[in-house]
Amino acid sequence: MTKDELRGLQPGAIIRHKNSAEAVIVTANYGDHAIAVRTHHVSNPAEWDIIPSPSEYGADWTPVERGVLGLLAAEQDLSQFGILRQALRLYQMHHRRLKNGETVSWSGDAARAREFSGPEA
Predict the structure, then answer these.
(1) pTM score, two decimals?
(2) What percent of the residues of the chain are helix, what percent strand, and what percent coil, each to the nearest 5?
(3) Which of 22, 29, 63, 65 is the most exposed, fewest CB within 10 Å of its CB?
(4) By the 8 A CB rule, do 9 and 15 touch?
């Protein structure tokens, strides 16, 4: 594709990456770059989860908290909801193990541990 062809892409155009052969659908064009998405055939409902809208979770979060969630999702190649589900599973496991008498220790000094886990109660 040339720069002129990039500028001329219209929403709905299907383009393919030369190295990965991944096909995507253009949803917007800003002249020097375009936004495109992948699509999937959805026929088995057991394979899919409905992701709540942002108004259903995190509506009262700070921009920093939303930003951290977005970064974690991008780094782990998960949806933001997937990150929240993973965090809940990890917290549940941690809580259960503490409840069963196991102990947790943090490496580093007390200030680093407090920074990592929050103020001690």
Answers:
(1) 0.44
(2) 45, 10, 45
(3) 63
(4) yes
